[in-house]
Design a protein that fits this description.
single chain, 83 residues, mainly alpha, 3 helices, globular
Length: 83
């Protein structure tokens, strides 16, 4: 079982949107793609954004997303370093 769950991750990612805005993530697919991209960054040598021992890069990527250390942006948004 994935902990945190997809639902919990979606709530965390969408927690910073203003009322009336579209959610950043509205499907499990979006969460999977975001965590896979971050895991690939970690595999390629990116520095972890949280402390701790994680058995795999994907586990670390999920935890970073859950702790709001990584921000997911849409294709049309530019700016700070994000997934």
């Amino acid at each position: 079982m994935l902990h945190p769950s997809y639902t919990d991750l979606m709530k965390v990612v969408n927690s910073e949107i203003e009322p009336g805005e579209h959610p950043v993530v509205n499907s499990r697919y979006s969460i999977v793609i975001a965590t896979a991209k971050r895991a690939r960054q970690l595999i390629n040598g990116a520095d972890p954004l949280i402390e701790g021992e994680f058995p795999k890069p994907l586990s670390l990527a999920i935890e970073e997303l859950y702790e709001s250390k990584v921000k997911i942006i849409g294709d049309n948004e530019l700016g700070e370093e994000s997934i």
